[in-house]
Structures are given as C-alpha cells and as structure tokens.
Amino acid sequence: MTLPRTYLDWNATAPLHPAAREAMVAALDVLGNPSSPHAEGRRARGLVETAREDIAQALDVPAGSVYFTSGATEAANWVLTPKVAASREGAPLSALLVSATEHACVLAGHRFPDAAVERIAVDAQGVVDGDGLCRRVSELAQRHGPRSVMISLQAANNETGVVQPVDAICTALAQYEPVVVCDGVQAVGRLAKLPSADVIFLSAHKLGGPKGVGAVIVNDDTLAPEPLCKGGGQERRQRSGTENVAGIAGFAAALKAVIQAREPAVSR
C-alpha cells in the first residue's frame, strides 16, 4: 500500500497560497511593461505599486521603504555592501560582522573584502554572543568612528528555528550607530513583528508566495546600498530590471493572507 505523502519542508518553500495563485493569474493577463507610460504600462505599474502599499501596510512600514528583488539571495548580495550611504559621499563601512549561523546568502553573498568580514560566535542554544558582539563593535567604532560597521543578524534560523534578540542588540549598540541588516525570511508572517533593524530582507516563497520574488525594507532613509543590478533604473534606481508583476502581486496577496490568518479573531 502506498501511503500519502506529507510535505513538511515549509522553511525551504511553503505551498502556494490560494490567494497568491488568484492574484498571479489575474496579473498574468495584464499586458504592459510597468515602466511604459501608455495605458497598459500604467495598469501594470498600478499592480506593482498596490502590492508595494499592501506589503508596507502588512509590515507597518512606509511604502517608500519597500524595494522588490528576485528573492532573498539577491537582496543579501545587494544590501551587504560597504557602500551604503545615500549621499554616496560617505566613507565605505570598515567591517561586516555576521553571526556564525547565518544563511549562505549572507556568509557568501556579501560585497565586503574578505579581510573585513568577521563571524560572531553563537552559544549552545544557537543565540549570538551579544556581549562579544558589543565589545567588537565598540573596538571598531573607537578605531573607525561611529556608523562604520555593518552587522547582519538572522531573525529566525531556517534550520533550527532559533530566534535572535535583534531588537535588544540594536538597543545595546545604538551609541555606535552600526548599520544593522536583518534576514527576516523565516520571521515574516510568523513572528508578531519584524525586528527594528535598519534593513530587512524577505522572500515570498517562504510564506506562501511564488518563488523568484523578494523584498528589501530600508528603514533608514540615509541608506541606499550601492545597486547590484544596473540598467533601466527601476525600483527608484536601486534595482534595475523589469519588475516581476505577477510574482509581486502574488507576494503581496500571500503576505496579506498570512497576516490576517495570524491575527486573533475579534471577540463578539
């Protein structure tokens, strides 16, 4: 007898949510390029911007802080760069500190010189050594000044489920003004709220959206990571390339559905 197969690997990719499927099918019928000024293009642009607003509302962030990418790996490669000052006049960051249990897209996907990257140990429970991190950031700040270090911390680990105390670490390090980047891939739609990091990146297919689309939330308007994809100037010149309209629509629909399902019902 063949037993029915049960799929449990949701941290790798979650099944497509019905709401995402419906939104994507509708978006696939929209003809225009979202960068075109004609009616068809404006309709496609409307889908992208509505999705941006829906995602921003679901995550309680400004719509202008949301940038779309092809996924979390591209997002990590984009934002983990020493050149993050919006003015482009600021000095490059001096170091990138990452926890030892970060995803490979962080450990291997950054754009810092290898000599500038340091791994921070975690304890037996998989929690980052906050005291050691604080000491190292203090040393680097004394040497290079404030706002000279980037830290990358995963909100929730995809293998172990360990949740890192990102907010507490941000508070403890506030005097040194590090740029804190958070891999929020496994946290969005699961934790009550995303950490208050400067930059957070997400992936749609971990929460019931389609594969091949993600987002970056830039919470600090003094930051604008050096673009990784250059060309047509899409996503406010931060991520060139024609937007994946159907994928973005599916991402927003899945996130809205997951957030609504997580919220407790109102008692009557």
Features:
single chain; 268 residues; alpha/beta; seven-stranded mixed beta sheet; 8 helices; 7 strands
Percent of residues in beta strands? 5-15%
Question: How far is the first residue's CA from the last residue's CA?
Answer: 48 Å
Low-confidence stretches: none
Number of strands: 7
Question: Given the structure, what is the number of helices?
Answer: 8
Quaternary structure classification: single chain
Strands side by side in the biggest sheet: 1-7-6-5-4-2-3
Q: How much is the radius of gyration in Å?
A: 19 Å
Shape: globular
Class by alpha and beta content: alpha/beta
Helix content: 25-40%
User: Major beta sheet, specifics?
Assistant: 7 strands, mixed
What is the N-to-C succession of helices and strands? Answer: HHEHEHEHEHEEEHH
Q: How confident is the prediction overall: mean pLDDT?
A: 94
Topology overview:
Blueprint (H helix, E strand, L loop, with lengths): L17 H11 L10 H21 L6 E4 L2 H8 L15 E5 L4 H4 L9 E4 L9 H15 L4 E6 L11 H7 L6 E5 L15 E5 L10 E5 L15 H4 L7 H18 L6
Parallel strand pairs: 2-3, 2-4, 4-5, 5-6
Antiparallel strand pairs: 1-7, 6-7
